[in-house]
């Protein structure tokens, strides 16, 4: 199958090595546990495997999707996967030998550049695992920058991001993690002001936040910087084509989930962790960064750089332990951004904004209530008369994924449904949704 | 003219105002109809403006500047660059899988959950461990998951005195970096003269302060830790846990279950042993297994099965917490699932046997020119060094670059740190004898060149898109974006 050796090959190879059978090479392994019995299913040939996987894929039911909550369905132009699935990209590894990896290296440099432009930030890493781990690493970097020991984070962060933040930073000595509450769906500025004591290293805030609401990030930034702390922003990449950017409101670190840029949902993984910062913090960036170098004839070339931050050089003093990243997802993102350009990206973002507002208006006209009355991009919260859990079940029977049940994160919100509308939805889809949810 | 074509223009340098690749329907209103100006973007980003064809050509031509497994032998040690069967790429990206939302009703994602559950079960069987999480996104994140699970275990026992993790000097840099992230002090121990753990050094380092001993098995000089059981007993006798780094599991799959060697915790790299492609640096996948004692501390959620239905269980009160926003790199897991469905119990061990056979064949073939640092049979990879006096000042980095000219990617070089001028060669089981013969021949040629025309080797590579890169030039005044 995938092992090419014929019996003759093996015989010659064993002879050359000077042993009689390949098992001799495993003599160091304790004999009593060598070659254990394994209970595994019977092997399938490619034909049977294909049928099996099609059967499994068929067990997933396609739904008209209105769920966002950190993973979104967006249109992916065919050229994205056609290009990124080329073996030259797919089956290479981390570009250690730069001269034979210029393709991967240049695409990473272009990814870093496009993201810096979109985020309005100075530096972008080659990628991180996902938005949540990028956030945890950014907070950890902030601690190293100012040597303080308290992190504030907004209650409006994605609930899973909060969990990952706690997991990653749990064992930092003397660290305090404190949540800043929301007021009508956005950061309670008075509470933030009060909590911004001199020991605060950074404030982590998402805009739009988990409830879809836009945050007054200029005001937040002024408060945070006024108190001598750093601002760590969780942005939404597609929204940045129209909304204020981390650079504009002065974030020190800005991270994001980049799945929405040309990557399928895939049940939530692989995602694309985007990590950006101001240039003065470049030495605190976790993981790979590509830079421009010169070859021996002075020709422009690309190479992994500033590696003194990394685990293979620094070991226990490294900025992070990250080694493999999400290069292929970053490649999808840069192809997507190159295909769309700013004009296309702006159209896609405007369509999200417009269609989400169209659905919101239709629902309100139909007698539904909004939980929050603030500004939003492509997600908003409906307050229903019925528990969201039940509504989701009923709409699933009609082929619709209605949204995210906010009762999962807050008992007081069990009638609240977080609804996401992207450019993929047609007017007919929106109408179908309105009909299906009528009366709940 | 040639120079213009050769120069790899950036996409932004090819950009023409007004040109574009993709058009969407036209929105009816401008954003200020929905959002006030102070929340809007103030200026345009400089993104490339290219047609679809220009974009396709740009990236196609960039791809052609890569060596990759599909086109070249890629003997990068410790990375297990084996063939990635094409069927898995197709089958893992069927629309049913790619369109699944992580918060979709469980009834709508039973196919994905069934794959994940059965993959967890198969990994348990192969390793002998009691539970597996597929959540970690890569090997390094798997290590962190494992060490945090160990820490949660000791915390649950109110054992606060264990503050150290012991790591041998042959370990990957991720091991000490991981331990540090988990809040532990790293204790490095020297290897013995045979490349294996020095039991005396380990004994001296072990104490009631030791939480975990991290060992890569086989280790990074390509050797199986001959005293592994004794080591595991020493670790356990000290009340510590044995974490096995499974980066090199390709040598052992089907041959031995790590639990039988005494491992309490381990991670596997699905992008190595389990044939998922490396993607130019990721995504990988680093599932973590734990024995009975530690299973309850794995990250939440886990995929479980009840009354024939699969579900994500987040109600795990002892869990170390969550490592990622969602449950793992699913598309990578699906490929590993395909791989394991193509091998049964009888044939799984052939992977390890042929990987080890290939590594030894290369080791013996290069014996006269580049000797193994430890002159004994190796496992899945061999670590070679140079005859310094015969090399005319040629160093390992030069040999690596010259190999590119001969049409081979280079081995991992200058690692592990204990081997001077190290070249770590991992052929994997999917390479044919002819390919290995060619590689050995190329290495012999380079050895001869070092003797007769050393400048050729010193100035290599000669036929790549760019010449030898001055890496220091990039760090001097970093240019990290346009």
Structure description:
The complex is a heterodimer of chains A (440) and B (482). With 440 residues, chain A is α/β, with parallel strands linked by helices. Chain A has 14 helices and 17 strands. Chain A has helices at residues 7-17, 46-59, 78-84, 87-90, 102-119, 131-146, 159-169, 189-195, 217-226, 246-249, 311-314, 327-365, 388-397, 427-437; strands at 64-65, 123-124, 150-154, 176-180, 182-183, 186-187, 200-206, 230-235, 253-257, 273-277, 290-295, 300-304, 369-370, 379-383, 400-401, 404-405, 416-420. In chain A, the strands form 5 sheets. Chain A has a 7-stranded mixed β-sheet with strand order 2-10-9-8-7-3-4, with helices on both faces. A 4-stranded antiparallel β-sheet of chain A has the order 13-14-17-16, covered by helices on one side. Chain A has a two-stranded parallel sheet with strand order 1-15. In chain A, strand 3 (150-154), helix 7 and strand 4 (176-180) form a beta-alpha-beta unit. In chain A, helix 3 (78-84) packs antiparallel against helix 12 (327-365) and helix 12 (327-365) packs across helix 14 (427-437). The mean pLDDT of chain A is 97. Chain B folds into 3 domains: 2-63, no CATH class; 100-342, Aspartate Aminotransferase, domain 2 (3-Layer(aba) Sandwich); 350-472, Aspartate Aminotransferase, domain 1, CATH 3.90.1150.10. Chain B has helices at residues 2-6, 11-14, 52-63, 86-92, 95-98, 110-127, 139-156, 174-181, 199-205, 228-237, 292-295, 330-342, 345-365, 396-405, 433-452, 454-458, 471-476; strands spanning 131-133, 164-168, 185-189, 210-216, 241-246, 265-268, 288-290, 302-306, 309-313, 382-384, 412-413, 423-425, 469-470. A 7-stranded mixed β-sheet of chain B has the order 1-7-6-5-4-2-3, sandwiched between helices. Chain B is globular and about 75 Å long. The model of chain B has no long low-confidence stretch (mean pLDDT 96). Strand 11 of chain A pairs antiparallel with strand 13 (469-470) of chain B, so a sheet runs across the interface.
């Amino acid at each position: 199958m995938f092992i090419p050796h014929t019996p003759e090959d093996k015989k010659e190879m064993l002879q050359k090595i000077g042993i009689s059978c390949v098992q001799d090479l495993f003599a160091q392994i304790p004999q009593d546990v060598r070659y254990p019995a394994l209970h595994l299913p019977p092997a399938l040939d490619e034909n049977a495997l294909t049928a099996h996987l099609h059967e499994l894929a068929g067990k997933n039911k396609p739904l008209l999707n209105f769920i966002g909550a950190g993973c979104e369905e967006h249109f992916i132009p065919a050229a994205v996967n056609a290009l990124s699935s080329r073996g030259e990209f797919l089956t290479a590894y981390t570009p250690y030998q730069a001269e034979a990896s210029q393709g991967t290296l240049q695409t990473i440099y272009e990814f870093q550049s496009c993201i810096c432009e979109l985020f309005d930030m100075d530096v972008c890493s080659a990628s991180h695992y996902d938005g949540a781990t990028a956030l945890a690493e950014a907070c950890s970097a902030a601690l190293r920058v100012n040597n303080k020991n308290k992190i504030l984070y907004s209650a409006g962060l994605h609930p899973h991001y909060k969990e990952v933040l706690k997991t990653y930073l749990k064992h930092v000595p003397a660290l305090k993690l404190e949540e800043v509450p929301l007021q009508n769906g956005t950061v309670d500025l008075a509470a933030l002001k009060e909590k911004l004591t001199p020991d605060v290293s950074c404030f982590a805030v998402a805009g739009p936040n988990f409830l879809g609401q836009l945050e007054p990030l200029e005001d937040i930034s002024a408060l945070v910087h006024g108190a001598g702390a750093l601002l760590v922003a969780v942005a939404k990449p597609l929204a940045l084509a129209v909304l204020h950017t981390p650079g504009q409101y002065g974030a020190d670190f800005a991270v994001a989930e980049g799945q929405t840029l040309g990557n399928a949902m895939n049940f939530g993984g692989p995602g694309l962790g985007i990590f950006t910062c101001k240039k003065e913090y470049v030495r605190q960036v976790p993981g790979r960064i590509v830079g421009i170098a010169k070859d021996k004839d002075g020709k422009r070339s690309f190479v992994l750089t500033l590696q003194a931050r990394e685990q293979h050089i620094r070991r226990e003093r490294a900025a992070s332990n990250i080694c493999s990243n999400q290069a292929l997802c970053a490649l999808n993102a840069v192809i997507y951004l190159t295909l769309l350009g700013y004009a296309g990206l702006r159209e896609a973002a405007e369509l999200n904004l417009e269609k989400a507002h169209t659905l919101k208006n239709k629902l309100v006209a139909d007698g539904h209530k909004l939980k929050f009355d603030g500004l939003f991009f492509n997600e908003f919260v409906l307050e229903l008369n019925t528990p969201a859990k039940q509504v989701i079940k009923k709409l699933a029977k009609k082929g619709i994924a209605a949204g995210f049940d906010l009762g999962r994160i807050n008992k007081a919100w069990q009638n609240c449904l977080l609804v996401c509308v992207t450019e993929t939805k047609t007017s007919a889809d929106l109408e179908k949704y309105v009909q299906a949810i009528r009366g709940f | 003219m040639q120079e213009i074509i050769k120069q790899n223009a950036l996409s932004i340098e090819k950009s023409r105002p007004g040109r574009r690749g993709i058009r969407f329907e036209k929105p009816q209103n401008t954003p200020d109809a929905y959002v006030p100006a102070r929340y809007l973007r103030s200026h345009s980003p400089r993104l490339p403006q290219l047609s679809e064809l220009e974009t396709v050509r740009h990236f196609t031509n960039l791809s052609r500047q890569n060596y990759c497994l599909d086109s070249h032998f890629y003997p990068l040690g410790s990375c297990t660059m084996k063939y990635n069967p094409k069927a898995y790429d197709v089958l893992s990206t069927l629309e049913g899988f790619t369109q699944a939302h992580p918060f979709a009703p469980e009834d709508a994602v039973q196919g994905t959950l069934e794959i994940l559950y059965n993959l967890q079960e198969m990994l348990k069987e192969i390793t002998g461990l009691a539970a597996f999480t597929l959540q970690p996104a890569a090997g390094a994140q798997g290590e962190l998951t494992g060490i945090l699970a160990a820490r949660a275990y000791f915390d649950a026992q109110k054992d606060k005195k264990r503050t150290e993790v012991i790591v041998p000097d042959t370990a990957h840099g991720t091991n000490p970096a991981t331990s540090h992230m988990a809040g532990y002090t790293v204790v490095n121990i020297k290897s013995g003269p045979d490349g294996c753990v020095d039991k005396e050094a380990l004994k001296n380092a072990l104490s009631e302060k030791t939480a975990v001993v991290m060992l890569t098995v086989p280790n990074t000089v390509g050797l199986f830790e001959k005293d592994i059981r004794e080591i595991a007993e020493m670790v356990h006798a000290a009340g510590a846990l044995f974490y096995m780094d499974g980066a090199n599991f390709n040598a052992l799959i089907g041959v031995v279950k790590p639990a039988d060697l005494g491992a309490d915790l381990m991670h596997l790299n699905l992008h190595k042993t389990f044939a998922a492609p490396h993607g130019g640096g990721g995504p990988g996948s680093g599932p973590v297994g734990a024995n009975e004692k530690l299973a309850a501390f794995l990250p939440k959620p886990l995929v479980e099965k009840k009354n024939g239905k699969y579900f994500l269980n987040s109600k795990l009160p002892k869990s170390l917490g969550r490592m990622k926003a969602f449950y793992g790199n699913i598309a990578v897991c699906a490929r590993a699932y395909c791989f394991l469905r193509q091998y049964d119990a009888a044939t799984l061990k052939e992977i390890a046997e042929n990987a080890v056979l290939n590594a030894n064949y290369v080791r013996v073939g290069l014996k006269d020119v580049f000797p193994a640092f430890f002159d004994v049979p190796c496992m899945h990879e061999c670590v070679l060094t140079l005859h310094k006096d015969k090399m005319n000042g040629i160093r390992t980095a030069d040999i690596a670059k010259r190999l590119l000219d001969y049409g081979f990617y280079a081995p991992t070089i200058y690692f592990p740190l204990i081997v001077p001028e190290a070249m770590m060669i991992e052929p994997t089981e999917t390479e044919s004898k002819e390919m290995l013969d060619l590689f050995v021949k190329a290495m012999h040629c380079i050895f001869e060149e070092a003797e007769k025309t050393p400048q050729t080797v010193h100035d290599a590579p000669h036929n790549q898109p760019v010449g030898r890169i001055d890496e220091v030039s990039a760090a001097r005044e970093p240019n990290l974006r346009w």
